[in-house]
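User: I'm writing a short report section on ligand binding and want a predicted complex to refer to. Could you take this sequence and 4'-deoxy-4'-aminopyridoxal-5'-phosphate and write out the structure as tokens? A short remark afterwards would be nice.
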Amino acid sequence: MPALPTKLPHTGTTIFTVMSALAAEHGAVNLGQGFPDFGADPALLQALTDAMAAGHNQYPPMTGVPALRQAVAAKLNSLYGAHYDADRDITITAGGTQGLITALHACVGAGDEVLIIEPAYDSYDPAIRLAGAVPVGVPMTADYRIDWAAVQAAITPRTRALVLNTPHNPSGRVATADDLQALAAIAEQHDLFIVSDEVYEHMVFDGAQHESVARHPALRERSFLVSSFGKTFHVTGWKVGFVAAPPALSAAFRRLHQYTVFTVHTPSQHALAAYLADPAPWQALSNFYQAKRDTFRTALAATPLKLLPCEGTYFQTVDYSAVSDLPELDFARWLTTEVGVAAIPLAGFYQRPQERRHVRFCFAKREDTLAEAARRLVAGLGR
Ligand code: PMP
Ligand code: GLN
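Assistant: Sure. The structure tokens for the complex follow:
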């Protein structure tokens, strides 16, 4: 057999898969990989059954089921004051991951540089490399704010795009209106595309609002807005999301989408379209997760872990330096095998090794799961 060529010679198995496997092997409470351990709304599941029974089982239009595109456009336009056209500017994708990689391939090519804000979700780096471009990591500040001076300093004549993620995985930080102003100024000055990962758009706490690129006309016109129903409706396994982008960007996106994915699971799209008729479920999401955040933080206060701010997402990052000197991956393994709680080391979100001692817990879990995790952490880490 000939050698298999690889475009990703230094890329291993994603940390989420590694930690979930370790958690399963050791019977640990899995607060690593981000997914709910509770069910979706029965009404959504019924809508899926209904869609299949109604015969929605063949290829949908290449860009997505019209009713779903219309529901998405209506929501974006009313929430963010945008003007996306359902037919022209919205494409249904196989989750956020596909939206991200296709958007990146649509706007960058060989030799281009793409800025990613580190810690950065782990699919950005390989997606950029597969496009022949170079990911350039720009570190956040020590308290996980975007460092706009560092972003500006990282720009070269080859910089073509920036990947924004707010609410931010893993830190749980949420970008402010000032952040988006700063981004708009830089993007205009250097003529950059923005790939905006907003999969946690409906999980923002303490009365703050999500700053979508769709709210800012100067950003909207150069942005691919990526989101995912998996997060919003507790169905990460459905892998249905969308990309909203202005006409030229959507046209470029669809040129690739049609030959890499073509279409996305039809009945799920019908179910989501019907379910989106009622705004209550996504409107309730921030309060729902804020309560889980508060429960989990209160429980962790009895451990020596230092809780970092959590403004959005369903992730709580902690500093464990009072407990251990182990590097992050080693600590996450130890926590999983010895304490019985799986976490994600933030090291998985950087190109280069870090000095920090931070791991991320997912609190998208039932009360009893969070209580059992807290019990093990209190017992295993002492005070
Ligand atoms: N972006 C971020 C920041 C994520 O956390 C995730 C995963 N949950 C995704 C993208 C991918 O979303 P999906 O599962 O819909 O592909
Ligand atoms: N986005 C989820 C997380 O950050 C997991 C997605 C995955 O497993 N690739 O945990």
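A remark for your report: The chain has a mean pLDDT of 97. The radius of gyration is 20 Å.
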